[in-house]
Design goal:
homodimer, 484 residues, alpha/beta, Rossmann fold, seven-stranded mixed beta sheet, six-stranded parallel beta sheet, 20 strands, 43% helix, elongated
Amino acid sequence: MNNVTKDSWRHLFSPATVAVIGASNTAGSWGNNALRGLLNNKERRVYPVNPNSPEVVGIKAYRSIMDIPDAIDLAVIVVAERIVPGVMRQCVAKGVKSAIIITSGFGEMGDEGRKLEREVADIARQGGIRFIGPNSMGHADTRSQLSTFGQFGEMPKGEVAVLAQSGSTCLKIVRSLTESGIALGKYVSTGNEADLITEDYLEYLADDDDTKIIALYVEGLRDGRRFFNLAKKITPRKPIVVVKVGGTEESARAVMSHTGALAGADAVYTAAFKQSGVIRVEDDDELCDVVYALLNSPLPRGNRAGILSIGGGPGALAAEACEKEGLAIGKLEESTITKLDGLLSSRWPRRNPVDMAGPSAAEISVVSSLLFAMMEDKNLDFILLLAPLIMDKSLLAGRLGLGPEAIKAYREKEAKNIALIREKVEAYEKPVVMMWQWRGFSDPEITGLFRQGRFIVCSNARRAARVLRYLVWYRHYLDVIAGK
Amino acid sequence: MNNVTKDSWRHLFSPATVAVIGASNTAGSWGNNALRGLLNNKERRVYPVNPNSPEVVGIKAYRSIMDIPDAIDLAVIVVAERIVPGVMRQCVAKGVKSAIIITSGFGEMGDEGRKLEREVADIARQGGIRFIGPNSMGHADTRSQLSTFGQFGEMPKGEVAVLAQSGSTCLKIVRSLTESGIALGKYVSTGNEADLITEDYLEYLADDDDTKIIALYVEGLRDGRRFFNLAKKITPRKPIVVVKVGGTEESARAVMSHTGALAGADAVYTAAFKQSGVIRVEDDDELCDVVYALLNSPLPRGNRAGILSIGGGPGALAAEACEKEGLAIGKLEESTITKLDGLLSSRWPRRNPVDMAGPSAAEISVVSSLLFAMMEDKNLDFILLLAPLIMDKSLLAGRLGLGPEAIKAYREKEAKNIALIREKVEAYEKPVVMMWQWRGFSDPEITGLFRQGRFIVCSNARRAARVLRYLVWYRHYLDVIAGK
């Protein structure tokens, strides 16, 4: 494939006119969802095509795309697979610029389907139409407020691009990121990749100024060499985070019957990802954790953890999790020990992990002073924080007996504190990962404060250690290629 | 130690009278929290002891425990460490039956602290007082509504006991379990174990009818031989789930400075846990997952996963996660394939993982029929379900356009369906793990329906695979010792 023009990308991601071929009045159907989702953007001219219905969701429908009295930038194809070739021929005749085929039942179905898929691809190529799919669940661009996924409501504009060779996984990643407060730029369920392949999208995103981070779900690559050459050029400027499945026997088989992709030897992929600076994570949850961290945190200078814990047990668990992930537990500088001696009771163990030795709820204001002292320590590259920086309402009102006014004042102090920590995170290039979770992870007031401070928040030490391992590795890669 | 009498346990876990020595008016302090928590149970007679204040939280306080005009079953000691020996002497003189020492600054502090700890233990032993701690964060019994942790409000009564050699970790486990809807029986932060040790509690819980599952956080064992002999006797009747830290260099050091316990060689522990049927998990989150599953699910007969997924990507990720944890992907029986052919479009891959090949939201009612077919398959021992069984409100109201009455009727149908699945889970001894998570994990109506059906719900395939691996292992252990 290759050589996709700028115009093609523009028509795919910000078309002025869209035809939905197979638009349907049936609630919950693909042809209904896609159409209704597209109607979010009032500026765009959207034309339903349905031979059996004069109107779809209250909008005049056309019997065929040929009847639409407007040029069409993007055709969204949602009809039965056997009539897709005919529809594609009509699109060519109509002069349609680009298409997305949501219909499935092609290459993933074996020989018959592969034949049908080739037929459609040949028609499109000869007619100059570049297309996504088939067997795609949709694509989206938040800048142009385009989504063929059947999403409703305004999409916040962001700088993360997601490419996934599985529609369900694409949506799952998109939703997880969104729930973490991350806005996306573009996302594509690439489907069977009969025309546009992952490598094409990657090449496009390489120079797309709106994209700062690229997240990928990969089952198999059509042109591995091209992928890794591209990746090598991109990763010094933009991180690429990948989940690649097919590493075990059954997952490889599942992949084959899913998108028809060959999974390939896992060890080869692992080595190639490593050499080209691609951060390979284990599953979609880790992908989201790492994207969040890359977007919201500097990369640590090294692999030495500082652990600050309100109790000994959580500190020991965190130390174990770090070491299992190949991170080191930094040795505190003497000056840090002196500083902490001034802040903690004589019961603290005077070593890392720093166990605060159980201060009561009334004493947690000391946590940020401890954190600052540890951030200043030259032997620590990042901090895992297992202690509260923010008190939840039940503590403030219940145990401390504060009234509404006093709680408000307390919150303001906390917000200032978090902003201050953020400044130090940037200045020292030391990520802080928050793991205090007894309460508050579900309190929007508290999560809101952490989001303002762009804190990495993990529910679990192992998850935190894995995120940091990836950040450490990527920083190391960048340092090596920069000759540091 | 050993030979703790029934009376001692009764005084510790359901005392009629409690003295809080070091009760305090300072909001948020240990001596304030413990006292206020104890006042939850109105039947119990609670006496604050504070030499400087005639009243604590509005209750008459005594200058010394000697002044209390009542016999005391349990003394809660929250005074500075240097005066603990004197207080313990007074407890002996007063004829106190049992105690818990929350005060820290003992064995975990090195030689000086160890000396002080031994002094206190000697006084108690000579005076016939059995005690928890020192350096404990509290203990609780939900049947007698006793808590020295400073928890407020009624505690639901359950059948899970938690023992933890870290107070913070104890509370974290208790809170995680509670948030999953699990009621606890007893829990103890065992502290430095100067008198009562983990092995003593275990011996007690072995024959405690209120305890069905035992969850432990262990840093080190004082009497490993006794522990494993006990465990061997207990695990055929009651599962024991353990997190044991100290497996890496730094975590071992952290453990030593925390409770003064020696972590010991990890490989020895691993082998001993295995031989005695103890389920050893990796961290506190896994502990909670496994306790939930043991409480709410039968054990699977074997290690063969069935995977039912709404999309190919999530199915492939789940297959990979299972295989990485040593689980197998079952081969579907021909009869199952025939059944599924009748339920799915020709696009489904006709193999496990069963990819539903993207039905629209309107078609999800087919999921339970597919699930039933897979549960009947003799080649599958448990099912991972990556597809919705319950529709969230926004789908019902938005995409399907249902009104409030129709939504109510739909919910009733769903509840019946979940009850039916539950019946089959029991009848076939096939756990079903739900991993559909795009929405609804935070909707109390939906989580409520799953709780009613006692579903195992995991946010992530790796987490699900690990839980199942532990269940499979435990079932295998039980089969082997039963000579099956």
